[in-house]
UniProtKB/TrEMBL annotation:
<keyword id="KW-0010">Activator</keyword>
<dbReference type="InterPro" id="IPR000595">
    <property type="entry name" value="cNMP-bd_dom"/>
</dbReference>
<dbReference type="Pfam" id="PF00027">
    <property type="entry name" value="cNMP_binding"/>
</dbReference>
<dbReference type="InterPro" id="IPR018490">
    <property type="entry name" value="cNMP-bd_dom_sf"/>
</dbReference>
<protein>
    <submittedName>
        <fullName>Crp/Fnr family transcriptional regulator</fullName>
    </submittedName>
</protein>
<dbReference type="InterPro" id="IPR014710">
    <property type="entry name" value="RmlC-like_jellyroll"/>
</dbReference>
<feature type="domain" description="Cyclic nucleotide-binding">
    <location>
        <begin position="11"/>
        <end position="43"/>
    </location>
</feature>
Length: 194
């Protein structure tokens, strides 16, 4: 599992192999079972972040009508930021739930600050990863606004095809902003084209 992290440190920093190993030894890696909440909507937001080594985590919220709305899925090699250091007493507006058994790196602000002061390049690496994540989110948001439901589904097939088989259809439909029935019709049309 740590090979994934070492890959990121090699790609985004010029840390020596010795420094990379020292950092990886300090990281907290936790296993979570399918169905485990990392955060619940309405709870005080924890000042933590996660990095997915294996598994899938769903971000969702319950809207005013009581309907679950999926806003993201995080899979291998993706960071799950919970950025609320300025608003520590705010209640979370969403939940994070393990859709599969997961192995995650768990980061906490206090330990991160210590690591950043000891290894400044680590902070640069995290910033670069967050910039990539933000770019991906902006692209997804733009597609959500500008694409038809069928185009959104085609984008998922192109960019994140593993989601189609890994998450329940009703959650994928919610993520695409459509009903499960509409998703079934889109899938059927795609199948009939081939």
């Amino acid at each position: 599992m740590k090979k994934i992290l070492l890959k990121y440190m090699t790609d985004f920093t010029s840390l020596s192999e010795e420094e990379q190993l020292a950092i990886s030894e300090c990281l907290r890696i936790e296993e979570y079972k399918k169905g485990k909440y990392l955060l619940r909507q309405g709870e005080l937001s924890a000042i933590k972040c996660y990095f997915v080594l294996t598994g899938c985590v769903r971000q969702f919220f319950i809207d005013e009508s009581g309907k679950e709305v999926t806003s993201n899925f995080f899979t291998e090699e993706q960071a799950i930021p919970i950025i609320n250091e300025q608003k520590q007493n705010d209640l979370s507006k969403y939940s994070l739930l393990c859709v599969e058994n997961c192995i995650l790196v768990v980061g906490e602000v206090d330990s991160e600050k210590t690591m950043f002061s000891k290894y400044p390049q680590l902070e640069t690496m995290i910033r670069k990863m967050m910039e990539i994540n933000l770019g991906d989110i902006q692209e997804q948001f733009g597609e959500f606004i500008n694409f038809s439901p069928e185009e959104r589904y085609e984008s998922i097939l192109k960019k994140r095809p593993q989601l189609v088989d890994r998450v329940p259809q009703h959650q994928l439909a919610s993520y695409l902003g459509i009903t499960p029935e509409s998703l079934s019709r889109i899938k059927k049309r795609k199948k009939n084209k081939f």
